[in-house]
């Protein structure tokens, strides 16, 4: 994994971060793309707080020069397996490589601090920017769920991807 710029840090999310996150989710389509069926739209602080109170869920804010620019979660799925969930870069900071920084930071935290042996995630196939980011970091598809969700009569296919520290080591050789 490459290193993030020095002014970018990953911190546990606070109520203030969650309040800012609420402003980023401005449509039912974005809510579904970001969280799948986890939350109702419009998203509320109560929904987020209840979700993050689950013992397996850890929410994080990506800060750049002290400002929140992204949000992501690590969810414990089983012994040594974590799922990256609800990855989002704020609208004013998209297109600057911060999504990659956020995912790399979550990967590093999961492996070094939480001793993860496998990381998984899910992404809708039409979310090309996110898919390119994840695959660029070594995540590989292992399953597809056609028509996993529907919004306004449009079906969305879901891709499941996985990454292991061993797969990164093998790719480096």
Shape: globular
> Can you identify the CATH superfamily?
Gcn5-related N-acetyltransferase (GNAT)
Helix vs. strand class: alpha+beta
- What is the tally of helical segments? 6
- Enter the CATH topology name: Aminopeptidase
What does this protein structure show overall?
It is a single chain. It contains six helices and seven strands, in the order E-H-H-H-E-E-E-H-E-H-E-E-H. It is an alpha+beta fold and 173 residues long. It has one domain (8-172): Gcn5-related N-acetyltransferase (GNAT) (Aminopeptidase), CATH 3.40.630. A hairpin with a 2-residue loop joins strand 6 (140-151) and strand 7 (154-163). The chain is globular and about 45 Å long. The mean pLDDT is 94.
Could you list some keywords that capture this structure?
alpha+beta, globular, 173 residues, Aminopeptidase
Question: What's this, in brief?
Answer:
This protein is of the alpha+beta class and about 170 residues long. Helix content is about 35%, strand content about 35%. The mean pLDDT is about 95.
């Amino acid at each position: 994994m490459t290193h993030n710029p020095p002014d970018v840090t990953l911190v546990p999310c606070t109520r203030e971060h969650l309040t800012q996150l609420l402003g980023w989710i401005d449509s039912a389509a974005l809510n579904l793309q970001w969280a799948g069926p986890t939350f109702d739209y419009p998203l509320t602080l109560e929904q987020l707080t209840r979700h993050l109170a689950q013992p397996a869920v850890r929410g994080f804010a990506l800060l750049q020069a002290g400002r929140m620019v992204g949000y992501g979660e690590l969810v414990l799925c089983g012994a040594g397996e974590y799922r990256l969930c609800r990855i989002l870069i704020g609208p004013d900071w998209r297109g600057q490589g911060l999504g990659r920084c956020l995912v790399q930071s979550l990967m590093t935290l999961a492996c070094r601090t939480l001793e993860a042996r496998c990381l998984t995630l899910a992404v809708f196939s039409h979310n090309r920017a996110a898919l390119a980011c994840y695959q660029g970091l070594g995540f590989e598809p292992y399953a597809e769920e056609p028509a996993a969700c529907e919004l306004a009569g449009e079906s969305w296919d879901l891709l499941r991807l996985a990454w292991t520290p061993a797969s990164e080591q093998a790719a480096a050789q």
